[in-house]
């Protein structure tokens, strides 16, 4: 309805393909029909994620681009100490010789340059080179090194997307760790894995020995703790504050729900160096504090939050039906959005605000009801004593913690509008609802 009655219906109707990602929930729900299939996909999600998690520190060790350590006042580059030359015409830069070679070939090049959290392109022409015998002398660079200071994005195109996805999957891993650590919950799965083929749960399933051994590894707390730690490291290297804070809250929430006070105490001690490392990385990579009022991203958010609220409350039409998805792309000048064009155009950087501005107040209420029903189902599953399988319990724990983190981070990020994040969230939602349905007779008795 909001797409049809949008200020720009053609744009909003085309945007419905993003909204249709919620069908992943129904697709997963209809295909994950047994407890074993849910566990398999959950474990597969963890293992597939570990590929990019291992790549993140390796990529950091390799380094990228040219970080300027010392540069002369007169130079053909718009550079200062600490800046990084990332790529030339889309191709990675490995040494200063790459710049000279490209200039000699083309006469003019476009260099992607990084300064803390900002990126821009600068054009360099061959005639601007300084006189000298070496490549460094021609560029005016006294010394350089490989850069190891950037916001990791894994195999994703953006660090924020990667951080949001990592928060969800890391929460799942931590939920499984808490469940496996609690010996009271480890009653049924490990013995079942060694069942013979004539077991009722194994009829027609034919899981290989490799898959079974993976399950056995996942039943060990130390392995799940290792997975969670590596994911937390990858999340830390994204230097994205909201998902990092959301993950901490998620872990505390999971530990409390899992009844593991001992783990919670250890986590409370371990989180102190993690927070210190996060704040240090934030300063090194972005040159800002955690709640720095001078931070450009915080200033940007203050502006768009006010603009979004004013636009939504402008008239009864906007209040009820919103302005339409992405209609701001066409009318941003007319509505004087983004500081009347002084700030980079984008979205409103908040899931609740984005929903209410683009789709109206009823749509926001509808979304909150969906979340409320989902959370209620999760708590029903967790509270019942009939759910004795620790893997299922761990999956639900992780999904509930990830949902809390998703909601908290969504207050300052439009994470629901990020397709990769939405896909993972709806998949995890299907895990919980299907676990509830396959255990419904026991749960209803409880």
Order of helices and strands: HHHHEEEHEEHEHHHHHHHHHHHHHHH
Q: What is the β-strand count?
A: 6
How would a crystallographer describe the biggest sheet?
Answer: 6 strands, antiparallel
Indicate the percent of residues in helices: 55-70%
Shape: globular
- Report how far apart the termini are: 41 Å
- The Rg value, from CA coordinates, equals 25 Å
Structural class: alpha+beta
Mean pLDDT across every amino acid position? 84
**Beta-strand proportion:** 5-15%
Domain count: 2
Count of alpha and pi helical runs: 21
- Which spans have pLDDT < 50 for at least 5 consecutive residues? 184-204
What is the structure about, briefly put?
The chain has 446 residues and is an alpha+beta fold. The protein has 21 helices and six strands. Helix 7 (159-181) runs antiparallel to helix 10 (221-236) and helix 17 (351-359) crosses helix 18 (361-383).
Q: What does this molecule look like?
A:
With 446 residues, the protein is α+β, with helices and mostly antiparallel strands. The protein folds into two domains: 9-60 and 154-445, no CATH class; 64-147, Pdz3 Domain (Roll), CATH 2.30.42. The chain is 61% helix and 9% strand. Strands 1, 2, 3, 4, 5 and 6 form a six-stranded antiparallel beta sheet that branches. α11 runs antiparallel to α12 (261-286) and α18 crosses α20. The longest helix has 28 residues, at 35-62. 37% of the residues are buried.
